[in-house]
């Protein structure tokens, strides 16, 4: 029994934060941002009280609107996020309620930028066990809630968004292949939000010190990301008996275009095979992989091999391969078929 993706949804807020706007508030230029990151703009959740749960629900709503899926048949929701609505209670609980997943368990999972891949592997394992049949996996983050817009090294990178996929069981040879997941806790201090947790609870001092915003050692994280994503991608291809030539598409974590290019170059994979949308969304952390799948779903065909690789705080990283399977029929296709039948009945 395999687990395969059968439906995809996504959501990004309508508010756009451009490089021009950032360059007016911090000491940087449009050219510097694009050259260093490949980002031209990012989306921000600026609506009043719009939280990570709202982004996740919008992505699930998009999935349910476009595919015929009964929310009551969903067995579980795995929500990967770095920016939960609250430290307590789980954001997944709220998402289950709003999205009508009345028969599903809900679980938050935090592995930073690697969160969606970790959740995808967890969901696939649950389905392969035979205990569950339908699991929705979501990556959602409101990064604007923890970004210091006075810090040019981090404020240029991040955006808000969410993506969702439906995993289902199949006895066909499509779906999730072997994954490799890795963690190195020695890199924790290089990328973190220091304040707000049990280690450094919120105080007047932590607020004054801006400890509730992302802190990053950019050069060190960059080097580690390239090394880790390249190495684990080679390892996961070997574990699935695949060569670079067997890879049809690469869906990498969208952290920095220079990282993406360096990884694809190290793997000797043509840039035409690498899916990139960081220029429009920035780094949406847990949402980058599912948003790429959502953005480019029309390019994927049955039987193609897709390599996913990611790296994030923790340090956490990993890679997996997917043999793209049969998607549920898109509602727009059904409507088109109905229109054609009606046209046939009228003209014939």
TrEMBL record:
Quote the pathway field: Lipid metabolism; fatty acid biosynthesis
What does the function comment of this entry state? Catalyzes the condensation reaction of fatty acid synthesis by the addition to an acyl acceptor of two carbons from malonyl-ACP. Catalyzes the first condensation reaction which initiates fatty acid synthesis and may therefore play a role in governing the total rate of fatty acid production. Possesses both acetoacetyl-ACP synthase and acetyl transacylase activities. Its substrate specificity determines the biosynthesis of branched-chain and/or straight-chain of fatty acids.
Instruction: Relate the assembly described in the record.
Output: Homodimer.
The superkingdom of the source organism is Bacteria
Supply the InterPro entries for this chain.
ACP_syn_III_C, ACP_syn_III_N, FabH, Thiolase-like
Q: Where is the active site?
A: 113, 253, 283
One Pfam entry for this protein is: ACP_syn_III_C
Entry's localization field: Cytoplasm
Q: What is this protein called?
A: Beta-ketoacyl-[acyl-carrier-protein] synthase III
Chief subcellular location equals cytoplasm
Reaction equations catalysed: malonyl-[ACP] + acetyl-CoA + H(+) = 3-oxobutanoyl-[ACP] + CO2 + CoA
Q: Which residues form the Beta-ketoacyl-[acyl-carrier-protein] synthase III N-terminal domain?
A: 107-185
Task: Domain (Beta-ketoacyl-[acyl-carrier-protein] synthase III C-terminal): give its ranges.
Answer: 237-324
Tell me which Gene Ontology terms the entry assigns under biological process.
fatty acid biosynthetic process; secondary metabolite biosynthetic process
**One example GO MF annotation:** beta-ketoacyl-acyl-carrier-protein synthase III activity
Name the Gene3D superfamilies for this protein.
Answer: 3.40.47.10
User: What's the source species for this entry?
Assistant: Flavobacterium shii
